[in-house]
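Chapter summary example.
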Amino acid sequence: MLLARMSRFVQRALIGVVLGVLLYVGAVLYVDLGRITAALDGYAWSAVLLALALSSLNYLLRFLKWELCLGWLGVRGDGPGDAPQLSRGRSLLIYLAGLSMSVTPGKIGEVLRSYLLHLSDGVPFARTAPIVVADRLTDLVALVVLSLVGVSQFREYLPIVLITLALVVAGVVVLGTPRLCRGLLGLLARLPGLAPIAARAGAMVDSSAALLRLRPLLVLSLISVVGWGLECVGYWLIVRGLVGAEASLSLCTFLWSTTTLIGALSFLPGGLGATEGSLAVLVTRLAAGVSQPAALATTLLIRACTLWYGELVGGIALAALLRHPPPPSSPVLDTPANPCTTRSPTTSTPASSITGRSSSTTPTTPSSTST
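The structure predicted for these 371 residues follows.
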């Protein structure tokens, strides 16, 4: 049953992987493999190893964000829906497994972590799913901050930064204000067929508000700035590995953060195509000694050290979890996996408060419970 439930997540990730392979093959054929190989003559391959090490540090910092969010939501408490036995090791494995969904639009597939946490420890899905939202918003904050390093020099990219900043502010205000969020969901629930979606979203309001208060927002954003800054350094090292290439750390920070924003705003799976295309064009234009084949080569290398490295690590972690799923007799699997059922950090939000209808609770008998 666990494998059947996981199939939807795996299929979505595989679509992104296939798109990535087709995109890269097309780019290599367009530029010519021979020219790309020639551009890498004398390349300092130690730069790739350093970039991988920096990406690994970034993942550990992102795991710290995950752990902080679990703490703020009181997940390791001793009440209903808590997971007092959740070890740091299993939490790390669950977090890393979520990286396998990095090639979904906006990385929204990383809610897989909440699903796995529900299966392994019985924590309601809706209680921890907002962690992904807080993670994405603070990532955007970090990318905006880092892009400011060069946006004053390249003002034509200022609209990208301003649009992202506006989206972040709007997201924080709406999701961080329970009364406003519930009001908007109430309006959404009146539209035909959207009441169930509004009810599910309503179950996440309190967790979202808890994570988007000022202190958690500042802490998560600071960690994101450091983590994404490490990736910017990794890109700088990869570009400097080219013979004759000249690019400052500030330029590479601007290039990597801005093109990552472009990929995020495109809402393509993993930013595929949008990030690679804009990065290859901009580095050719702005960095000295970087030809078109060299630009494509460095773009493929940095994406291999970030996006695809994460996919690999996530796939290994997910496979490890699937090899040791919860036993069939586990009480976690003997209860309905209803993502709308959550114990909020502060107050609970029944579906009726969103839809405006009364709700009743029907007792669940053992014969109707599906595992």
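To summarize the output: Residues 2-351 form one domain.
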